[in-house]
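ok new one. same drill as before - C-alpha cells go in, u give me an amino acid for every spot. 997 of them this time. try not to just spam alanines like last time pls lmao
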C-alpha cells in the first residue's frame, strides 16, 4: 500500500523536528507491524524525541517488542509504555543512550518489567536491594543476567535525571559490592571444604572502595584471610586463594552473557608478584616496612565489601593509621614531587587531547590533588578522611584547606567530566576514557547531557572549558590557601591555619616553612596593585618552585628579584602577561646559585625570559661589537672593563637561563633530549663571550696606555677548553700571548709594551667584583711558569724547533686565535701546524711518552680522598681519558685526515669515526661519557655557584644536579649509578684505544 506524498512529507518533517537523523529509516520502523497499535500516538514520538538518540531508541523499541514471547506480552508492553510516563521515560531513555542494554533487553525481553516500579525505595537502592536483585543467581551466567537487570534500573534513573552523577556512581559501587558478595557465595558453594577452613575478607579499593564507580571499570580489590580456629594457616591460605581466584573468574570470565567486569587485585602488596591472599599480620608487615607512598595513597579508598565483616573491619582499623602517618615518612617529599608529575607518557600522542582520565585537565588531576591534600592534612584533621573524591573536596573547603571558589569550580568540572565518562561508557558498556571523534557519538552524548540545540558545539565547548578549569586549578589548589593564610580575607572566608600552612609547605618540599610563609606575607599582603598581581602569580610560581630541588631558594630569590624590580612597571606585567616568562623565571631561580646571583646583579635581565628569542645564543661578532662599543664609551681602563664585565654578566645569565630551561623543560616544551647539543651550545656561548671580553679588555688597555696603536702587533691565542670552544661556567681561560714589533720599533720596546699589556689585562680582570671571575692562565706557554709570558713569533719558532716536548704538541692541538691582530694569530697557527699534525704521525717513542704522561697524571694529580669513579676530569672514563684518546688520534693521523684538524673534541671524535680510525660504537661510548662529564661540571657550577670536578656531597645540591641532568626527585642513586656505568664503559674503550691494552 502506497503512502500519500503529503503524509510522507508531513511525517518526515515531524521526525526531523523531533531529532531523528534518519527520518526515512524511522518511518519504516514506525510502519512496522510491531508498532501498529501505537505508531500514531503523539506521546510516543514526543518521548522518542526527548531521548539522547531517537533513531537508536526507536530501533531498540522495535527489537524489544518483536522479542516478546506472544501477542499478550507485546500488548502489555505497549499499553504500559503509552499509559505510564515513568516507564516510558526510563525505557526509551535507556534505549536511546545504550546500545548494549538494548541488546540485553532483546535477549531478555521480560527484563523491561524491572523499570515499571516507581516506589520511593526504588529511587535510591542500596546494597541490600541489589543483593535481593541478585539472590536467584546461582551460577556465573545467571549472575550476569541479574547484574544487567540491576544495571538497567541504575542507567534508567541516570539518563532520566532522577539521580545525579554522585548518586549514580554510588549505586554502581553498591551493585559491585552486591555482585562481589554473590560471586563469593557461588565460589563458597562450589568449594565448601575451602570455605570451612578460612575467614576471607574482600577489601574494595579504587573507585569501588571510594563509592564512585564507573559503568565499566576494573573493580580493584585486596584479599585478607585468616585460618579458622584449629585450622592450619598454610592450608587455610591456600583455600582462601582458591576461593578468591574463583570469585575473580566468576566476575571476569567471558560467557554466553559476556562478562561483568575484571576484578583487579594488583594493588595488593608486591602487586602481581605478591601472593593473592595474605593474613592481616602479613599485610601489616609489608606496609610497615616496604610500602611506597602511592600504596598508602591507594589505601585512602580501602573499604571492606564482602566476606568476613569482622576481619574486614580489623584490616581497616589496622591499616588506616598508617595512611595518615605517611606524610611523616622520610621520602614523602620526593615521592610527592614524583607523584605530582602527570603520567601521560603511555598515552598515544593522538589520544592525549581526547583522554578524559589521564590527559591534562582530566579526572586524575582532580583525584590526585584531593588525595594529596588529604594525605598532608588528614593526619591532624579526621574530617578529611573520606574515600569519595567530592566528599573529600567539600571537607577540604569546609576546613579552609582549599579556597571555596576553587572548590566549587573543581566540583562542577569533576561532575561534568564524570558524567561525560559515564555517557561514553554506557553506549556499548565498554571500558574507555576516550572522548569519541565521530559526530554521531558526540551528538548522542551531548543530547544525553541536556544539550539539544547545538549538541556537538556545546559539548566540545563545555568539555574544553571544564578541562581548562581543572588544569588551571590543579596546581593552584595547593598554593592559593597558603597565600590566604598570610593575606586579608573576605568576610566569611576560612583561613588555613599557620600550622596547616607549614604542613603543606613541608609536604611540598620546603625545608624552612616559617621563612617561606614570611616571604609569602611580604610579597602578597596589602592592598596595592603590586600585591594583587603577586597573589595571582604566586600560586603557580610556588608549584614550579616545588618542582625543583630547592623550593626555598626559589621563593627567596623571587622575593629578592621582586624587591629589586617591584617598582618597575614592566616587571610584574611581564610575568603576568608573557606566558613563558613566569615559568622560565621560576625554573631559573630555583635551579641553583649561579643564575640567580647573576640576575641579582642585573635584575633587568629578567626581560630576556619573556622574549621568544631572548635566550638564543648571540653570534661572536655581535658580542664583540657590543663589548667594543661599551669599552669605547667608557672613561679609563677600569671603567671600560667594568662595562665589558657588565655585558659578560648579562650574557652569562642568558646562557645559564637557556641551559636550565632547556634541561628542565617547561609545561609547553619538554626538556631537550640531545644532551650533546646542550653541551655544545654552552661551550660555544661561554667561549665566545670570554673571547669578546678579552678583546674588549685588550682594546681598553691599549687605548689607555698607547692611544690607538700599540708599538707591537699583539694576539691572544686560546688554548685548552677555551680554544676548543668547550669552556664551562667555571673554567679558566687558558691562553698564549704572541707579539711582533711594528716597523721601526725596537725588540726591547715592543717586548716591554707587550708585557705591560698582559700585566694590565690580568690586573683589570682580577679587580674585586661581584661578577664571576675571569682568570687568565698562561701556564701552557713554553717553559711553563718559568718562561716569559709573551714571546715573539720567532721566539716561539726557535723554542718549538729546539726544545718542544710531545705534550706541548698535544696542547697546541687546541690553539686558536681569539683576540688582537688577526694576521699575527694566523701566522702563529701556520707556525704550529707542523708540530700538532706532524708529517708521518707520531713515532713509537712519542706514543709511549704520551701514555707515560697520562698514567703519571692519573696517579699524581687525583685529589686525595676523591672517588676516581666520580671525578669528572681525572676520574675513570672522564674528560681527560676521552680527550687524550682523541688527541692521540689527532697527533697520529691529523696530517692525512683534514677532519681531525679541529680544536673541538666532539668534532675530532666524529671525524676519527668517519675516517674509520675508531669503531662507531666506541666513538659513541666516548662521546656519551664526555658529554655527561661536561654536563656534570656545568651542573655543579650552576648549583653551587663555584666550580667543582666531583658531585656535591650535600643532599639538596646533589638533588639539584640530578634535576638538571633529567632525573626525577629521589633518583640521585640512579644518577650516580648511570654515571659510573657510562664512564666505566668509556674507560674500557680508553684502555684499548689509548693504552693499546
Amino acid at each position: 500500500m502506497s503512502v500519500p506524498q503529503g503524509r510522507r512529507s508531513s511525517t518526515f518533517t515531524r521526525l526531523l523536528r523531533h531529532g531523528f537523523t534518519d527520518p526515512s529509516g524511522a518511518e519504516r520502523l514506525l510502519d512496522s507491524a510491531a508498532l501498529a497499535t501505537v505508531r500514531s500516538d503523539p506521546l510516543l514520538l514526543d518521548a522518542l524525541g526527548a531521548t539522547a538518540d531517537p533513531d537508536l531508541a526507536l530501533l531498540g523499541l522495535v527489537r524489544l517488542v518483536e522479542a516478546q514471547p506472544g501477542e499478550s506480552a507485546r500488548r502489555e508492553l505497549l499499553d504500559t509504555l503509552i499509559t505510564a510516563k515513568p516507564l516510558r521515560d526510563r525505557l526509551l531513555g535507556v534505549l536511546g543512550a545504550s546500545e548494549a542494554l538494548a541488546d540485553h533487553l532483546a535477549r531478555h525481553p521480560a527484563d523491561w518489567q524491572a523499570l515499571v516500579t516507581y516506589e520511593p525505595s526504588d529511587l535510591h537502592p542500596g546494597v541490600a536491594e541489589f543483593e535481593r536483585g541478585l539472590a536467584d543467581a546461582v551460577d556465573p551466567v545467571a549472575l550476569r543476567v541479574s547484574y544487567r537487570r540491576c544495571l538497567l534500573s541504575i542507567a534508567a534513573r541516570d539518563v532520566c535525571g532522577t539521580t545525579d552523577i554522585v548518586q549514580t556512581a554510588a549505586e554502581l559501587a553498591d551493585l559491585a559490592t552486591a555482585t562481589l558478595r554473590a560471586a563469593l557465595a557461588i565460589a563458597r558453594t562450589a568449594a565448601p571444604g575451602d570455605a570451612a577452613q578460612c575467614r576471607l575478607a574482600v577489601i574494595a579499593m579504587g573507585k569501588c572502595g571510594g563509592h564512585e564507580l564507573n559503568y565499566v571499570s576494573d573493580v580493584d580489590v585486596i584479599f585478607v584471610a585468616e585460618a579458622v580456629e584449629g585450622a592450619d594457616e598454610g592450608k587455610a591460605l591456600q583455600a582462601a586463594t582458591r576461593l578468591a581466584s574463583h570469585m575473580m573468574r566468576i566476575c571476569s570470565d567471558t560467557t554466553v552473557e559476556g562478562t561483568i567486569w575484571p576484578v583487579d587485585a594488583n594493588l595488593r602488596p608486591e602487586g602481581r608478584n605478591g601472593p593473592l591472599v595474605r593474613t592481616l599480620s602479613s599485610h601489616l608487615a609489608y606496609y610497615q616496612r616496604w610500602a611506597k607512598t602511592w600504596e598508602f595513597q591507594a589505601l585512602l579508598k580501602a573499604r571492606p565489601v564482602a566476606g568476613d565483616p569482622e576481619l574486614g573491619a580489623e584490616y581497616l582499623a589496622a591499616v588506616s593509621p598508617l595512611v595518615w602517618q605517611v606524610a611523616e615518612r622520610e621520602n614523602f617529599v620526593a615521592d610527592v614531587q614524583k607523584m605530582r608529575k602527570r603520567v601521560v607518557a603511555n598515552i598515544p600522542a593522538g589520544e592525549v587531547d581526547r583522554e578524559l582520565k589521564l590527559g591534562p585537565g582530566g579526572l586524575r588531576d582532580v583525584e590526585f590533588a584531593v588525595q594529596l591534600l588529604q594525605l598532608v592534612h588528614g593526619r591532624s584533621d579526621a574530617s578529611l578522611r573520606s574515600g569519595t573524591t567530592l566528599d573529600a573536596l567539600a571537607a577540604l573547603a569546609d576546613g579552609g584547606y582549599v579556597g571555596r571558589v576553587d572548590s566549587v569550580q573543581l566540583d562542577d568540572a569533576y561532575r561534568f567530566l564524570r558524567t561525560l565518562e559515564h555517557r561514553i561508557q554506557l553506549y556499548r558498556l565498554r571500558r574507555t576514557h576516550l572522548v569519541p571523534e565521530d559526530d554521531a557519538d558526540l551528538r548522542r552524548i551531548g543530547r544525553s547531557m541536556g544539550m539539544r540545540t547545538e549538541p556537538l558545539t556545546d559539548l566540545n565547548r563545555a568539555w574544553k572549558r571544564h578541562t581548562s578549569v581543572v588544569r588551571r586549578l590543579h596546581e593552584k589548589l595547593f598554593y592559593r590557601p597558603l597565600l590566604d593564610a598570610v593575606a586579608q580575607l573576605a568576610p566569611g572566608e576560612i583561613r588555613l591555619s599557620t600550622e596547616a600552612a607549614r604542613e603543606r609547605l613541608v609536604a611540598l618540599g620546603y625545608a624552612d616553612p616559617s621563612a617561606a610563609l614570611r616571604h609569602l606575607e611580604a610579597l602578597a599582603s596589602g592592598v596595592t596593585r603590586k600585591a594583587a598581581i603577586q597573589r595571582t602569580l604566586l600560586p603557580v610560581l610556588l608549584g614550579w618552585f616545588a618542582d625543583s630541588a630547592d623550593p626555598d631558594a626559589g621563593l627567596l630569590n623571587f622575593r629578592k628579584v621582586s624587591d629589586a624590580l617591584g617598582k618597575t612597571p614592566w616587571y610584574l606585567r611581564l610575568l603576568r602577561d608573557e606566558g613563558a616568562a613566569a615559568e622560565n623565571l621560576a625554573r631559573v631561580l630555583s635551579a641553583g646559585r649561579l643564575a640567580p646571583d647573576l640576575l641579582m646583579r642585573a635584575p633587568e635581565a629578567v626581560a630576556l625570559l619573556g622574549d621568544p628569542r631572548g635566550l638564543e645564543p648571540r653570534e661572536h661578532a655581535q658580542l664583540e661589537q657590543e663589548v667594543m662599543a661599551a669599552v669605547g664609551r667608557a672613561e679609563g681602563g677600569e671603567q671600560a672593563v667594568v662595562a665589558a664585565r657588565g655585558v659578560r654578566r648579562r650574557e652569562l645569565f642568558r646562557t645559564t637561563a637557556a641551559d636550565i630551561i632547556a634541561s628542565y623543560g617547561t609545561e609547553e616544551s619538554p626538556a631537550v633530549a640531545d644532551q650533546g647539543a646542550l653541551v655544545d651550545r654552552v661551550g660555544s656561548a661561554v667561549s665566545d663571550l670570554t673571547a669578546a671580553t678579552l678583546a674588549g679588555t685588550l682594546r681598553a688597555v691599549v687605548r689607555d696606555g698607547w692611544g690607538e696603536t700599540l708599538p707591537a702587533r699583539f694576539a691572544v691565542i686560546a688554548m685548552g677548553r677555551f680554544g676548543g670552544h668547550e669552556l664551562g661556567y667555571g673554567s679558566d681561560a687558558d691562553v698564549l700571548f704572541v707579539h711582533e714589533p711594528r716597523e721601526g720599533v725596537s725588540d726591547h720596546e715592543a717586548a716591554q709594551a707587550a708585557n705591560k699589556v698582559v700585566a694590565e689585562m690580568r690586573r683589570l680582570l682580577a679587580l674585586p667584583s661581584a661578577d664571576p671571575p675571569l682568570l687568565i692562565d698562561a701556564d701552557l706557554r713554553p717553559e711553563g711558569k718559568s718562561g716569559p709570558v709573551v714571546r715573539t713569533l720567532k721566539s716561539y719558532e726557535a723554542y718549538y724547533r729546539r726544545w718542544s716536548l710531545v705534550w706541548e704538541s698535544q696542547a697546541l692541538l687546541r690553539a686558536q686565535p681569539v683576540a688582537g691582530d688577526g694576521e699575527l694569530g694566523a701566522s702563529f697557527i701556520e707556525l704550529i701546524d707542523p708540530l700538532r699534525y706532524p708529517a708521518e704521525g707520531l713515532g713509537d717513542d712519542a706514543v709511549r711518552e704520551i701514555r707515560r704522561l697520562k698514567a703519571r697524571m692519573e696517579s699524581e694529580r687525583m685529589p686525595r680522598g676523591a672517588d676516581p669513579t666520580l671525578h669528572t676530569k681525572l676520574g675513570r672514563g672522564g674528560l681527560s681519558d676521552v680527550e687524550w684518546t682523541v688527541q692521540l688520534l689527532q697527533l697520529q693521523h691529523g696530517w692525512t685526515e683534514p677532519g681531525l684538524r679541529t680544536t673541538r673534541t666532539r668534532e675530532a671524535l666524529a671525524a676519527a669515526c668517519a675516517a674509520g680510525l675508531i669503531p662507531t660504537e666506541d666513538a659513541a661510548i666516548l662521546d656519551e661519557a664526555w658529554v655527561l662529564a661536561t654536563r656534570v661540571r656545568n651542573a655543579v657550577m650552576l648549583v653551587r655557584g663555584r666550580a667543582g670536578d666531583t658531585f656535591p656531597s650535600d643532599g639538596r645540591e646533589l638533588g639539584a644536579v640530578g634535576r638538571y641532568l633529567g632525573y626525577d626527585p629521589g633518583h640521585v642513586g640512579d644518577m650516580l649509578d648511570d654515571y659510573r656505568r657510562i664512564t666505566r664503559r668509556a674507560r674500557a674503550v680508553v684502555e684499548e684505544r689509548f693504552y693499546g691494552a
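Residues 1-7 have pLDDT under 50 and may be disordered. and btw The two ends are 99 Å apart (CA to CA).
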